[in-house]
């Protein structure tokens, strides 16, 4: 977005999660075309050059027809240079992590393993809010629409189990997984009783790092590791808690046990299974943009700290 000649924004709000700091976003010269059905959304946060008010389907249909009528073709040399620039950006593997670690469970490994086991299944994934939400979005390679159910930037902790129950009621023959954290899941953990009441056998994967991970990460990076109200020293025994609600509980502490646990949970089709994965408490989510910074000031990995 920062390095293009023309930016075509279709129904976008240019919110802070997308552009970062508006002043930083506006510092590069390029033309911005903004399509939106709501005129009040245009130039609300970012000044645009060409406003188009209308229904997206109608506008894009007409735009495509105009492009075809014009007969214009891309400049092959310029396009090749642009792709070379993009390939240089792509050469940085921001999703790399210590896959060979045999001592502690990496949270990314749990999500990747779930994807490998369910990629050919009729599966739905929900999440709560925090680092686990980012890892679920990054490492579960969704290949169909409407399979990723979460609150996005609304930041609604506790929605994972209720979302999963709703999907299971609507899609009883589908596999439904709630990827959560030990902080978020306690916001609505009492709904495990509703799982039993209404017979919605979901699978809950808790990436338990004993922290409010996203808060801890910000405190580590922004406040030199001065942690406040982000650590969890009074957690319940989630296995016993799940069993008390009438479900199956599992405690997984070794990387080599991740896949067998997920395979076992999948076999228990008619039971709600709560898997307490004890994950690396020091793992951080990357890429990330620090508060008040622009998107080209993104931290791509720990080496950028």
Which SSEs are present, and which pair or pack?
Layout: E1 6-10, H1 16-19, H2 22-25, E2 31-36, E3 50-53, H3 56-70, H4 76-90, H5 107-118, E4 123-127, H6 131-139, E5 148-149, H7 160-170, E6 175-180, H8 192-197, E7 203-208, H9 213-222, H10 238-244, E8 248-252, H11 258-267, E9 273-278
Parallel strand pairs: 1-2, 2-3, 4-5, 4-6, 6-7, 7-9, 8-9
Summarize the structure.
This protein has 305 residues and is of the alpha/beta class.
3D structure, described in words:
With 305 residues, the protein is α/β, with parallel strands linked by helices. It folds into 2 domains: 6-90, TPP-binding domain (Rossmann fold); 107-278, Thiamin diphosphate (ThDP)-binding fold, Pyr/PP domains (Rossmann fold), CATH 3.40.50. The protein is built from 11 helices and 9 strands. The strands form 2 sheets. Strands 5-4-6-7-9-8 form a 6-stranded parallel beta sheet, sandwiched between helices. A 3-stranded parallel beta sheet has the order 1-2-3, with no helix packed on it. Helix 5 crosses helix 6 and helix 5 crosses helix 11 (258-267). It is globular.
Sheet/helix structural class: alpha/beta
Unreliable sequence segments: none
Topology, number of strands = 9
The rounded Rg comes to 22 Å
Range of helix content? 25-40%
Largest beta sheet: strand ordering: 5-4-6-7-9-8
Instruction: Estimate the mean pLDDT confidence.
Output: 95
Number of helices: 11
- CATH fold call of the largest domain: Rossmann fold
Q: Regarding CATH, which class of the largest domain?
A: Alpha Beta
Question: N- to C-terminal separation?
Answer: 24 Å
Following the backbone from N to C, one meets helices and strands in this order, namely EHHEEHHHEHEHEHEHHEHE
Beta-strand percentage? 5-15%
Largest sheet: 6 strands, parallel
């Amino acid at each position: 977005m920062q390095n293009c000649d023309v930016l075509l924004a279709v129904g976008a709000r240019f919110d802070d999660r997308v552009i970062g700091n508006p002043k930083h976003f506006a510092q590069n010269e390029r033309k911005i075309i903004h399509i939106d059905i709501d005129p009040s959304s245009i130039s609300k946060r970012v000044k645009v050059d060409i406003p188009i008010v209308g229904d997206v389907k109608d506008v894009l249909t007409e735009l495509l027809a105009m492009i075809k009528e014009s007969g214009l073709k891309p400049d092959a040399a310029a396009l090749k240079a642009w792709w070379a620039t993009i390939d240089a950006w792509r050469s940085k593997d921001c999703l790399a992590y210590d896959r060979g670690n045999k001592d502690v469970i990496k949270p990314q490994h749990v999500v990747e393993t779930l994807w490998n086991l369910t990629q050919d299944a009729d599966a739905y994934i929900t999440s709560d809010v925090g680092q686990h939400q980012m890892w679920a979005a990054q490492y579960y390679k969704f290949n169909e629409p409407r399979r990723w159910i979460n609150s996005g930037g609304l930041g609604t902790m506790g929605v994972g189990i209720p979302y999963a129950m709703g999907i299971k009621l609507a899609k009883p023959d589908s596999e439904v997984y709630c990827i959560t954290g030990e902080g978020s899941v306690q916001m609505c953990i009492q709904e495990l009783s509703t799982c039993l009441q209404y017979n919605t056998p979901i699978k809950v994967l808790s990436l338990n790092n004993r922290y409010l991970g996203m808060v801890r990460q910000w405190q580590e990076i922004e406040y030199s590791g001065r942690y406040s109200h982000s650590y969890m020293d009074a957690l319940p025994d989630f296995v016993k808690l799940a069993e008390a609600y009438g479900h199956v509980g599992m405690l997984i502490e070794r990387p080599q046990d991740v896949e067998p646990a997920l395979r076992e949970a999948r076999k228990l089709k008619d039971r709600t299974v709560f898997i307490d994965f004890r994950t690396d408490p020091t793992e951080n989510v990357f890429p990330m943009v620090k508060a008040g910074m622009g998107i080209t000031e993104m931290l791509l990995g720990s080496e950028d700290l």
